[in-house]
Amino acid sequence: MIPAADAVLFDLDGCLVDSRVPFVRSINAALVAHGLAERTHDELVGYLGPPIHGTLHELVGEDEHELVASLLTAYRARYREHGLGETPVFAGIPELLAALRDGGLPLVVCTTKAQILAEPLLEAVDLRAFFDAVIGTPADVNEEPKTVTLARALERLPAGVQHPVMIGDRRHDIEAAHANGLPGIGVLWGIGDEAELRAAGADALVSRPHELLGSLGAG
Question: Of 11, 13, 169, 173, which residue is the catalytic one?
Fold first, then answer.
C-alpha cells in the first residue's frame, strides 16, 4: 500500500509528453551530419528514457568519446530548433496536473533530459506552470544517472514533505525511486511496458492518467 502522496515527481519523456518523434529525428539528424547511417524508428525508440550520452555510446562505440560529444551537440541543437514543435502532450495529462495542483500537492519534473531542453519543452507545451521546479541534467554534465537526478529533485521539495512519489514509464524511474527510498508508480502509455515496470518492482501500474489520482491517494 502506497501512503497518500504529499508531493509528486514526474518523469518527462514518455510520461508527460510523447517525445518519440523528435527523439528519433534528432538522433538521426546528428548521425547523418557526421556521415553515419540513420537508424530505424523502432530501433531508436527503445533508447528513449535513459541518459542520451550513454545511448550515443551504444550506437557508435564505447571508445568514441569525441564523436559522441559532437553527436550530442548536434542532437541538442536539432532538438532545440525543431523538437519542441514535434512533441505532443499525452491525453489527460493537463487535467491530471490541474487536479493535483488543486489538491495542493507540490509537483516537480525529474528528468535526465538536459535542463536546457526540458524547461523550454514544458513551456512550449503549456505545462511549465503546473510545476514548482524542473530538474534535468545540467548543461555541463554529459550523463547523470536517474538516481542522482532524483536525489537533487527531492532537495527542491518543500520542508515537511514525508511521502513523495515518483511517476515514470521506464525501469530507471522505478529503480531511482527505490534507491531514494520512495515509491515508484509505472505508467503504461509511455515506452516501458508492463513486463519492464513489474521487473523493476513498480509499486503500482496505471494505464491512464486519471487513474493516478487514486494511486496517489488524491482521487
Answer: 11
